[in-house]
Protein 1
Amino acid sequence: MSSVCLSSAYLRVIALALFLLFSGLTGCAGTRSVQDKSCALAGAGRFDEALAVLDSSSLASSRTDRLLYLMERGLLLHLQGSYTQSTVVLDQAEQLSEELFTKSVSAGAASFLINDQIIAYNGADYEVVYLNYYKALNYLLLGNLEAAGVEARRVDLKLRQFEDAYAGKTVFKEDAFLRMLTGLIYQAQGDWNNAFIAYRLAHDSFVANRQLYGVPVPVVLWSLLTTTAQRSGLLQERDTYRALAAERGVQTELIDSLAVVLINNGRIPVKRERMALFPTEEGFPVKIALPEFVARPGGVTSARLSVAGQEVTAEPVENLAAIAFKSLDDRIGRVLAKAIARALAKEIAARQLERQHGDGVGLLSRLFNIVTENADLRSWSGLPASVLLAAVPVASGDHPYRLFLDGRPVEGSLVVPAHGVGFAVHRTY
């Protein structure tokens, strides 16, 4: 492309971008405001209003933010208790995420002239996996163990897909908690052997990622490992894990049926922009903008479950906040490299415009470069910061329970089938 064509195309891009900027259609501020407002309403139990805010916002009609809208809407429907509707929306989100994952990067040319916000949001890897987590929860709460098992297997498929796509060079290629949940689903189905395999993968992942995410092997996992190993006839493996548990001061027990309460706790960190200006030879600055996560307060610091005359402390099983931080750190080098290359390309284009159309156009183009060089701050804001799990061996049947969240009692009930697992889910903010 000749320099004349380039400058003409760039002038058209500047005109369009300035129109969008001044008409208030660009940037992440509006999106973040909608997400925060709908989340606050959901935290107050006002789910209909939270959905109304989301559905009437620009997020609902944005083509580039379509995945983000579906993620937030599917989660709100889950919290509302509309599990079937939630699954329909999350299915749409998953299908779209797969399309975006495999789509060509042709949109990158436009993002190279403006910023990454004009590209369709395709979700962080952990966000895409958590679509299946919430779908699995929906099915569990509807009593559909078979469909929940399908979602668990989808998690495994995606983790393998990410590792292959990035040639192993990605920090998020395993999730201990989701492996453990897979094991619980298999155990609920009476599939002892696959449950043991899932629990073993969970154990190995907890051990491997302890330094990254700060989550130790949950105490209850040792008993689940030894139980499923014994039921599968894997006596050597049972004895191995029993000995490892004993070394850590844990006494294992056989657990044929149990009550499980999951607590999706707090709010995942939010992105903000980190920006720096660098002078050029002409004296006009070039802007570099990067995203960074900031932790948000909220959630509970302790949770205890009282059921069937027993009381246990909920254990941390997932640090999604740490996963978010590490995942962004893992790719920030690529984000920085693209930002630098884009800044250089913009400056070269500005110099061409200045030579061809004068100082005024050159100044306008450089102002355009600074105004439009913004970090992509989009993320699935409704996700929890962490997950806590309380599990108690109980007989089959209906079980009312009381959950103490920072001392505040919350009552519920769950059904434990014969030789199975009963599930309940709570959300804290």
Note: Confidence is low (pLDDT under 50) at residues 20-27.
Protein 2
Amino acid sequence: MEIVDKIALETMVIDVLKTCYDPEIPTNIYDLGLIYEIKIDDEANVHTKMTLTSPSCPVAGTLPPEVEAKIRNIQGVNSSKVEVTWEPPWSRDMMNEEAKFELGML
């Protein structure tokens, strides 16, 4: 049985998450702080907990499946599951410095 390099796999997951964008805010979902948790088990199954900027987000039905599919397509990933949560609610404070800079908030 092959040993899963969880750190390398998480880095690849983050790189893929940085290719997913919220259509209302021109910044990727990772830098926006929409990704709350990435868990990778010993079989390379990836569970991602994320939120959206609001429950009425126009991509609420399409963004989570897009994220799930993009992660599933990473070489070495066995399966991908995205869980959407509203707790805690997203706020601008969750954005990293790069996102704040891109949006002129610094």
Note: The two ends are 48 Å apart (CA to CA).
Protein 3
Amino acid sequence: MSCRAELPVVLERWRRFRRALKAEDQPAMDVAIAALEKNGPTTFGNLDDPLEAAVLAVLLELAREAERRGALA
């Protein structure tokens, strides 16, 4: 069973958390939220644990970005 229905709940929690951050930390959280929005539907559709799905969605995007920048070999 997937946790796809949990994605909007997690995104809303992350958005509330973002608002509580200091202004200088909010852009980094924006990156994490954007990564979850982009990759969340896939990971949430294939995993049972919402936390695992959210973390993997963000890590996937960060790894892609590092690869594009040549940071990963």
Note: The chain has one domain: 4-68.
Protein 4
Amino acid sequence: MMMVSILNKFKKGLKKTHDNLTTVFSVLLNGLNSLGTEETEELEEVLLQADVGLETAEKIIEEVKKADIDHKNHNEMNAALKKTLKEFFYLDDKRALTLKEKPSVVLFVGVNGSGKTTSIAKFSKMLSEQGKKVMLAGCDTFRAAAIEQISVWAGRLDIPVVKGFSGADPASVAYDAHESALSKNIDCLIIDTAGRQHTKDHLMEELKKIINTIRKKDTSQPSEVFLVLDSTTGQNGLSQAQKFNEFIGLTGVVLTKMDGTAKGGIALRIEKTLGIPVKYIGLGEEFDDFCEFDPDSFCEALIN
């Protein structure tokens, strides 16, 4: 029942990408006599529209063409596509949430408007429902509104929060939060950071300072460093991930706004290009629309 529920969430959230793929794909198959040059180019165009990237699209087509199937048969082609797509998600051994010694620190980073603070709220609720004691740290001290926002979420979820004043040193707030989490036997300390452009090196260095501050108390932390990525951003999203990973080392990606785009193929590009697992995915506005990323459900929802 659980897998059915997850699959239904993925189908609902990925509907725009699914419809974009299957509508054109069905037209292509209906007129297909063989997977020749013209058909290959059409299939490639469909995949590019879904934002899987040129290299990934070429690899998918290559594998489908090699498959020992009747390429005019919808079911066989669908099965071959799903099998090929699943092979791009090769990081399953790194996909599970890793929480180390208490308090485990989970750092959320990302550019402005990516859905970072909302993702933190949903992630916090998920952990709380699993019986974990959660604390929030409001380290986005650049905007007074951000401090207020994280405080509102903490109140709604009945979760303690440590926050600084506007203009305070984010690393100092992180230090205070870590001290508080240690004293209160918190399972997971979730740190919200200011949205920052990945092209601004001095802002990226500030993230390093937060991490180094945490490591003064516990060299094994943070347990996780999540980049929250707006799935509508395409190639720019990959550039963000590359830069953040270069500066602070990412352990996973949280893909948001999947329900609002027809470019869900970005998930394939992240893992294949960067070697960073997609760990969570936002498939809608509700709390329950935030869930662990499941490659099988993802591929099934895209093709069927």
Note: The beta strands are 104-109, 134-139, 161-163, 188-193, 224-230, 252-256, 278-282, 290-292.
